[in-house]
C-alpha cells in the first residue's frame, strides 16, 4: 500500500486496484491505532474513525488536494503507483 502523504503523525495511503470493496474513489488513513477509509473527492467516511482533531486535518488536506487525489485514484485504479502528494503544513 503506497503512502501518498504523511503529516502530523497521519499516514495517507492509496491501494492500487482497490476497487472491489468500496467501489468508489477513496483513501486509507491511519493515525496511531485509528484507521479510516474516506471517499474522495468529498472526504466522507466509508469505514472506521479518527479522533476529531485529526479528522479535521485530513478533511482540510483533502480540500486542498482534491484534483491530485482524483488523478492518483485514476492511476491506482488502473494498477499504477499513485504519486506522493504534499503534506499539510
Q: For the CA atoms, what is the radius of gyration?
A: 12 Å
Q: Could you say which overall geometry the principal axes of the C-alpha atoms support? A: globular
Structural class: alpha+beta
Multimeric state of these chains? single chain
Strand composition percent:
25-35%
Please give the order of strands in the largest beta sheet: 1-2-3-4-5
- Total of domains: 1
Instruction: Tell me the major beta sheet.
Output: 5 strands, antiparallel
| Mean pLDDT over the residues | 92
Number of strands: 5
End-to-end Cα distance, whole Å, is: 23 Å
The helix-strand sequence is EEEEEHH
Indicate the low-confidence ranges by residue numbers: none
What can you see in these coordinates?
This protein has 2 helices and 5 strands; from the N terminus they run E-E-E-E-E-H-H. By secondary structure, it is α+β, with helices and mostly antiparallel strands. The protein has helices spanning 52-64, 66-77, and strands spanning 3-7, 10-13, 26-31, 34-39, 45-48. The N and C termini lie far apart (23 Å). The chain has a 5-stranded antiparallel sheet, with no helix packed on it. Helices cover 28% and strands 28% of the residues. It has one domain (3-77). A hairpin with a 2-residue loop joins strand 3 and strand 4 (34-39).
Write out key terms for the chains shown.
2 helices; 28% strand; DUF4160 domain-containing protein; alpha+beta
Which helices and strands, and how do they pair?
Blueprint: E1 3-7, E2 10-13, E3 26-31, E4 34-39, E5 45-48, H1 52-64, H2 66-77
Antiparallel strand pairs: 1-2, 2-3, 3-4, 4-5
Amino acid at each position: 500500500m503506497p503512502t501518498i502523504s504523511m503529516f502530523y503523525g497521519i499516514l495517507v495511503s492509496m491501494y492500487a486496484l482497490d476497487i472491489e470493496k468500496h467501489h468508489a474513489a477513496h483513501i486509507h488513513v491511519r493515525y496511531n491505532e485509528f484507521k479510516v477509509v474516506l471517499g474522495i473527492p468529498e472526504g466522507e467516511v466509508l469505514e472506521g474513525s479518527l479522533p476529531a482533531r485529526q479528522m479535521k486535518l485530513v478533511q482540510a488536506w483533502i480540500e486542498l488536494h482534491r484534483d491530485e487525489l482524483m488523478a492518483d485514484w485514476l492511476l491506482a485504479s488502473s494498477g499504477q503507483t499513485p504519486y506522493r502528494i504534499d503534506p499539510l503544513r
